[in-house]
Specification:
This protein is an alpha/beta fold. It has 9 helices and 8 strands.
Length: 256
Amino acid sequence: MSKWDNKSIVIIGSGAVAHFFTNFFIEKGISISGLYSRNKKAGSKLALQYDIPFFDSISASTGELYFVAVKDDAVISVISDLPKSREVLYTSGTIDLSLIDHPKCSVFYPLQSFDGDLSIPADKIPILLESKSTELNSDLEQLCKLVGLPHYPVDSVKRKEIHLCAVFLNNFINHLGTIAFDEMKSRNIEFDILKPLLEKTMHQLISGNTIQKQTGPAKRNDKSTIIEHKKMLTGTTLDVYTAVTNSIIKKFGHEL
């Protein structure tokens, strides 16, 4: 018998991470005693969707563990309002655990991108764990094993470093894709013609073989092509092109 058979979770937050884990825990048979969110409209809607209580205030909530899934800027202030007698975990990739004034606090950072897709399989969500005690850490390891989440012990410094790399690999690459799609749309270019190139690029990224496979005008320091490209761009898109191009030029030892 697992201690999680009798342990209930209060979800705090109503964004994409809170939504995903509310759905995920319920599907895995973990008891959710209710949900609290400062955004009462979004929070009450999410609670209603899963037929769980919505708490108007943190003090009205009841549960053995608080799952804090809010934006980083709100983590410390939210946790400061939670009872010190209950276990707390938060999902931030950057907030140092030592900054949290709560004796029963842990980090439960899901290293994944959450965008409303509730179908991400458990084995594709590495969980980075850090706790203020071995007992709390044991509880979280047991939870991860129970629901099939891969988990890794990581201190706050290493977690922040991993999060930084994740921003480059996910957020920045996705944004560059957005820029490319905007350019394709404005120039009436069909995505299908570029899709094989994108697939090859993703394969190179996954294999980790990036520096050896770098190509393009910046790698060759092909100034005439770079000048022509810049003539075609304006505003922040030009700024992004220039910054990335200059970074590649420097990486390969060329002079700007």
